Amino acid sequence: MILYDFIFEDINGNVFDVESLAGKNVLIVNTASHCGFTKQFAQLQELYENSSRQTFEILGFPSNDFGQQDPGSDEEIALFCEKNYGVNFPMMSKVKVVGNSTHPLYSWLKSETGEEPKWNFHKYLIDKKGNVIRSLSSSIEPLDSEIIDWVQQ
Questions:
Q1: Degrees (nearest 5) of the Cα angle 56, 129, 140?
Q2: How far, in Å, are 9, 33, 98, 129 from residue 1 at the CA level?
Q3: I want to staple 70 with a disulfide (CB 3.0 to 4.6 A). Which of 36, 39, 64, 143 is the partner?
Q4: pLDDT at position 75, please?
Q5: Closest residue by Cα to residue 148 from 118, 115, 123
Q6: 35 is catalytic
Q7: Residues whose CB is less than 8 angstroms from the CB of residue 76 and which lie 6 or more positions away in sequence, other chains included
Q8: CB 124: neighbour CB atoms within 10 A?
Q9: Whole-model pTM?
Q10: Is pLDDT above 90 for 70?
Q11: Which residues pair with 28 in a beta bridge?
């Protein structure tokens, strides 16, 4: 399987066009609105604004799996992200990233890397062919040189 085999909805309830990701490096991150790492939204947005839409994309997946730190509806989450951080990269509908009812995408990410998110803002790097290449902990910030170097490949 590859990334393009999955179906998921954006934060507005529309099926996301995964084919639009073909040929791009993709950063997948599980997000939360009320977490110590929430400030990473600012760096994610900066990374998004300073990268080419032709070769890179960010997908945010809100989750309430850790510490009940994203209890709001998709509409509330979208408003929070836009109002507080100016987020305009694609945000998806809230999903489970661990435990029972884990979204199939996150089950695949875990099976490919051997790592599941241990907290909010865990990151996965997907190559231009849709394959998982790396898992990064929440403590690795979006503007870390490791991520920036990978985005610029």
A1: 50
A2: 19, 31, 19, 11
A3: 64
A4: 97
A5: 123
A6: yes
A7: none
A8: 26
A9: 0.97
A10: yes
A11: 59, 124
